[in-house]
Structure formats: structure tokens, C-alpha cells
Please model this.
Amino acid sequence: MATVLVIGASKGIGRETVKQALKAGHKVRAMARSEVRILGRLDNLETVTGNALDPEAIERALQGVDVVIQTLGVSAGPEMILKPVRIFSDATRVLVPAMEASGVKRLICLTGFGAGDSRNRGGMLYNTAFHLFLGRAYDDKDRQEQIIQDSALDWVIARPGILTNMRHTGTYRVLPDPEDWRSGCISRANVADFLVKQIDDDTYLGQTPVLIE
Ligand SMILES: NC(=O)c1ccc[n+]([C@@H]2O[C@H](COP(=O)([O-])OP(=O)(O)OC[C@H]3O[C@@H](n4cnc5c(N)ncnc54)[C@H](OP(=O)(O)O)[C@@H]3O)[C@@H](O)[C@H]2O)c1
Model:
């Protein structure tokens, strides 16, 4: 069983990842700027309040860790549309050298369908809405993915389709081959299922699978 650092653990996919990783028997250090609240058996959980942009906080959080799962997000709203987004690349520029320096090899990162070479692959409606509302965030996810792909780490980049709050079924499609990429929905809980499986499964190392149900 691994010791896993989840960065972006207070909400959404990150919080669900913490719950499922604990259930799978891993030890989890859960980090976010706000308090991480998880119910249930918490013997193997350590929560850390910290900013992913703070190199010292990241260096401390990496101590004793085997695997990092990065699930950062930004609040949807006018800011995300009108202003440049930097959080994804800035946080990854802090994280990757810190992992390389401390010998933590495996990074599982969440971006989204439309990042990197999956841009403009979703059909006309998806692509138009994407450019209008998510263009700036995904420009930064492009930079984030590039930093990871240029690193010496063992990485998996997960690119889910449109997120829902439906339940955890464990049934979804993992599409590593660009020929199969298309838009679709997937629950945050099923994305977390995939992220947790990558902790000790090498199948998708160095790949950027799209996830849809
Ligand atoms: N919405 C969609 O349909 C869709 C589709 C594909 C991919 N995605 C992507 O999926 C990702 C996750 O989405 P989600 O809805 O699960 O996320 P979310 O609910 O917005 O959660 C984001 C997490 O990141 C943490 N965070 C943000 N800035 C941080 C910082 N500087 N330091 C530490 N923690 C920080 C937040 O906690 P604090 O605020 O407490 O720090 C929170 O725990 C996002 O990147 C999103 O773009 C979304």
C-alpha cells in the first residue's frame, strides 16, 4: 500500500479521491487551502492546510510520500473567462522539481478533455462552448501538461469529459488512443476511481487517456 499526497483535496474529485484511496487501503495526506473534511474511518488520513503555489509547503507535504495525485481546480465564473489562468502551470512548476529533488517518482494529474493534443476533438458544439468558457483555463492546462511531459517523472495525465455528481459505479471508458477521443460525461466519483487505480497500476504510464462513461 502506498502513501499518497492528494493536492486539491477539499472538494470535488480530490475529496472523492481521498475517500476512495483510503478505502483501497492507502495512506493519504490530503492538502488544500481550506480544511479537508472527510467522514468515516480516518486512521490512515493526514490533512494539511497549504497552498500548492508555496514551494516550502509542497516540500513538506512530499516527505514520506510515494505517489502524488494533483486535482486542482478553479472556481467557475467571469474571472476564469476574462483573466488569464495560471494556477495549473504555476502549481505544477512548483511540484515537479520538488518531486524530482525528493525522489517521489509517480505523478497522477487531472486536466480535462480539450487539454494538449485533445483540443478541438469534441465536435462543433463542444469546441465552441469550450473556447468561450474554458479557453483560458485550458491554455494553462496545456502548459501544465507540457511541464509534466517534459519531466523525468513517471506520470499519468487523466482527461475527463464533462463532470457530473452522479454516483460511483466503476463503469467508464478509458480512451488512450486519439482515434477514440470524443466528448461525453463522467461522474467525479468515477474519475476518482481511475486516479486511485493509477497509484499501483502501470498500464497508462506516460499516457493521456480521455475518460467518459
Ligand atoms: N467541470 C467540468 O465539466 C470539467 C471537465 C473536465 C475537467 N475538469 C477539471 O477537473 C478539475 C477538478 O474539478 P473539480 O470540480 O473536482 O474541482 P473543485 O471542486 O473546483 O476542487 C478544486 C480543488 O483544488 C483546490 N485548490 C485550488 N487552488 C488551490 C491551491 N492554490 N492550493 C491548494 N489547493 C487548491 C481546492 O481547494 P481550496 O480552494 O480549499 O484550496 C479544491 O479542493 C478542474 O481542474 C477542472 O477544470 C472539469
About this structure: The radius of gyration is 16 Å. The mean pLDDT is 95.
